[in-house]
Design a protein that fits this description.
Layout lengths: L1 H29 L6 H60 L54
Length: 150
Amino acid sequence: MELIADILMAAGAIGAGFYCFVLGRRLNRFNDLERGVGGAVAVLSAQVDDLSKTLTAAQTTAAKSAETLSALTRRAEETSRQLELQMAALRDLESSEGNQTEVNPMREPRAEPRNGAPSGKPADPTTPPPAPPPSGEPMFVRHRVSGDAA
């Protein structure tokens, strides 16, 4: 009976050793950096690092773009306010034009059409339109009336 127990014990030990050998080989293949899951984990880890760097760069670029956009928005709002003030001043000049003898330099006299022909005569189609102001003169000139608040 002891002999049978010893034989079964030896067979169990040999079976456990073979099982450990097979598991060891599988574990080595599993952790192989080129073909196994270990390789996949290494590749995914490298991709996570690359994505983290890309995300940081994108956040930096987005922050700079937001700052630039904010500055441009502020500038546009300031310009819009200035244009509104200039339009209001122009309306004030136009409304006071009938009360004063000063002529608005931005408008042509109403007696003549745009091509320069007198108002009583038909416009000559061969007459060239008036020349633009010389390049040395500004296109828009602001004239202040005495007592005009800026």
